[in-house]
Amino acid sequence: MRFIVFYMLLLLLAPGPSLAVEGYLDVTAPAGRKLQLSIAPATTLSGPAAPELARELAELFEFDLGLAGPFKVSAPGAGTAGADLVLKTAYAVRGSALTLECRLFDPVLNRELAAKRYTGGMRELRRMGHAFSDEALRVLTGEKGPFTGKIAYVTKLSGNKEIFVMDYDGRNTQRVTNNGSINLNPEFAPSGKEIIYTSYKKKNPDLYRREIFTGREARISSRSGLNAMGAYAPDGGRIALVMTKDGNSEIYLISKQGKELARLTRNSAIDVSPAWSPDGGKLVFVSDRMGKPQLFVMNADGGDVRRLTTSGAYNVTPRWSPKGDRIVYAREGSGGFQIHAISPDGSQDVQLTTQGSNEHPRWSPDGRFIVFSSTRGGSEAIYLMRADGSAQTRASRGKVRDSHPTWSCAW
Amino acid sequence: MFALSFVCHLAFVALIVWSQSFQGFHPAEEALTYVDMVTLPVASPQSGTPSPSQEKGEEPPAAPAPVLPTAAMVQPTVKPKVKPLPAAKGKALKPAAVDDVRESAEVLAKIERLVEERRQSEVMNRLRKKGGRAVGMPGAKGNEAGSDYSSYIRSRLMDAFKEVMASQTRSPEVMVRITIGSDGRITDFRVEKKSGDPLFDDAVARAVTLAGRSFKPPPGGAPFKHGYRFKLEGVGLP
Questions:
Q1: Which residue in the set A25, A32, A106 is minimally distant from B238, CB to CB?
Q2: How confident is the model at residue A410 (pLDDT cuts 50, 70, 90)?
Q3: Cα radius of gyration rounded to whole Å, chain B
Q4: By CB neighbour count within 10 A (0-12 exposed, 13-18 middle, 19+ buried), where does B157 fall?
Q5: Quick one: which of A64, A75, A89 has its CA closest to A37?
Q6: Given strand A350-351, what is the order of strands in its sheet?
């Protein structure tokens, strides 16, 4: 009897099933909608109209913000009715000097979200536009965009493999090396102002460090054998490097001046392609110690090695995302390499590309995008995609082989 | 005579007890609640809340006249062979006894009507308690299912939210509390819990602003305050 009374009391006191939090009604909408961003036709602040400039600016915003993901961008002339956001630009051209004003409005809330005025030369037009795209993403998403960053890559434009840099969208290509030799594996320092790369210009594959703006260069590792696949630690003071000076391909830690600090791997297998976790505490690398090239993770001192990938016969070139939640790499299949992304605990291994052979994936500094090289268009070229594999777009515009891309932080 | 009267009264009392015994547990009452809600007369179309004062004066609509079957459809009927009841030997039913039976039937019908009215009254009371003062969708006739002001606001918010929704995370959730003045304008909008996704937070603000342009005033002229939780349907990143 007591049990029955107790049970009845429980039934009376127990809360019933509820779909909403008490006192709150649920308001829902389907996921997947994109913000309608309308680009208003550019106007002049003063001076003559420059329709070419206005058109180039509109195309730039359309490409940047369309690639970003959350927006559906409508071009100038499509009207701003019904738009969630309106981007307005005004310019003044005086000789070779340019003043550009960009404003982002929210017509629903009737507020100005961002307003910037840039001054410089006419050659700075695209940089100004990318800077405002970065700013638009910052005010809307809380994270600055990566569009003012540069992509360094290896190209056979001059016949041999040289390193160039370009805007992330493939414009404004600039030569970095011009030594007529083979130059490989460019990697930006965290500051974005320096680059390390491996060059055969003195016959041996040595590691060089070069200041982008001054052009000053130093050979920081010229041990016998391979000095390649250098990767800056997040603190910018250390470099993980593959060397064969001890007879086998191993991963070492050196200072940015080239002083050897530690040997991280020690076995008879081939250990290559080190990449740092964003906190600098771990490294992901490739090793064939279990038969075939697979991804492994170890502590920054070389300890606690564990296998990361368990499927795929040939997994190479890993890179840890800036947020630390994903590792992107290339896996060889029947039709060449494809880009995959995996969580650092080995779960959620997802294939991101399907067309052509796709290699050398690298993250954008904000982790929104992945840049990689692909043969899908015939010759190998540089492509971009969002971190989830969507919006795969060609970036490099040359007709020669472009490969080994890497994305810098904002210049 | 006395015995017959006693029997009739006993039967009458038994009928009353029988009919009362069904009031205590009426399993169909919950189902009737919904039906009554959409069919009961409405006091004020503006508020959608039935009021007892006007309810009393209204007569239910007359039932439609039954459609008589046409001659062709009339089935041949067989006259039942009525066998007259054998009269009690030496004891014919007196007119006074017949009057008693008729009177009992009338009283019984009256009681049944009273019981039915009482049940209707209970349903009405429950409806009033459920809605409270803020019941009623402005401008509606009051015969819509779930037609209360908080749901009306939710519906307007949902329409606006679908127009402006944006997010960059998988399951964002924002909780807000909205106060609407007697003129239908938003007088206070408080975000009680952000989602951590600026795109989604802004979309919620945009939806509330957009929907708030066309809110109808709350019924009764009193300010209305309620909490709403904004979230995504389904799963997946945009």
A1: A32
A2: confident
A3: 30
A4: buried
A5: A75
A6: A315-320, A327-333, A336-342, A350-351
Cβ distance of B238 and A70 shorter than 8 Å:
yes
State both tokens at B158.
């949902």
Q: Where are the domains of chain B?
A: 1-49+96-137, 149-231
Local structure of residue B70 (DSSP, 8 states): P
* Structure token digits, residue A216: 């000053």
Q: Which amino acid is at B185?
A: R
Give all strands (DSSP E) within chain B, no chain letters: 173-180, 186-193, 224-233
Please, are residues A219 and A261 in contact by the beta-carbon 8 Å criterion? no
Query: CB distance A26–B151 less than 8 Å?
Result: no
B231 vs A25: CB contact, 8 Å cut-off? no
Structure tokens at B188: 């206070």
User: Domain spanning A149-410 has what CATH number?
Assistant: 2.120.10.30
Structurally, what CATH architecture does the domain formed by B149-231 represent? 2-Layer Sandwich (3.30)
| A contact test, residue of B149, B151, B163 with most A CBs within 10 A | B163
What are A105-144's pLDDT values in tens digits? 999 889 999 999 999 999 999 999 999 999 999 999 999 9
Please provide the size of chain A in residues: 411
User: Tell me, what amino acid is at B145?
Assistant: A
CA dihedral of residues B102, B106, B109, B110 (deg, nearest 10): -160
pLDDT band of residue B20 (cuts 50, 70, 90) is low
Tell me the sheet residues that pair with A93: A98
Query: For residue B91, what pLDDT is reported?
Result: 46
- Parallel, antiparallel, or unpaired for β A282-287 and A294-299? antiparallel
Question: Residues near B130 by Cβ (< 8 Å), separated by ≥ 6?
Answer: none
- At the topology level, CATH places domain A35-141 in Rossmann fold (3.40.50)
What's residue B135's pLDDT?
Answer: 47
Q: Please state, in angstroms and rounded to a whole number, the distance separating the CA atoms of residues A357 and A331.
A: 10
Strand partners, A88: A103
Q: Average pLDDT of B49-78? A: 44
HSE, side-chain direction, 13 A CA sphere, residue A269: 14
Q: Where are the domains of chain A?
A: 35-141, 149-410
In whole angstroms, give the CA distance from residue B24 to residue A65.
68
CB A83 within 8 A of CB A107: yes
Interface mutation vs chain A, best among B154, B176, B186, most A CBs within 10 Å = B154
**Interface contact A35-B166, CB threshold 8 A:** yes
Mention every residue, 6+ apart, whose C-beta is less than 8 A from residue A127: A120, A148
Contacts of B162 in chain A (CB under 8 A): 29-30, 33
The answer to whether residues A230 and A187 touch, using CB atoms and an 8 Å cutoff, is yes
Task: Report chain B residues whose CB lies below 8 A from the CB of A141.
Answer: 168, 198-199
Kindly tell me the burial class for residue A266, based on how many C-beta atoms sit within 10 Å of its own C-beta (0-12, 13-18, 19 or more).
exposed
Q: Select the residue from A19, A28, A104 to test the B interface by mutation, using most B Cβ atoms within 10 A.
A: A28
Inter-chain contact A31–B238, Cβ cutoff 8 Å?
A: yes
Residue A294 · residue A338 · CB < 8 Å: no
- This model of the complex carries an ipTM of 0.75
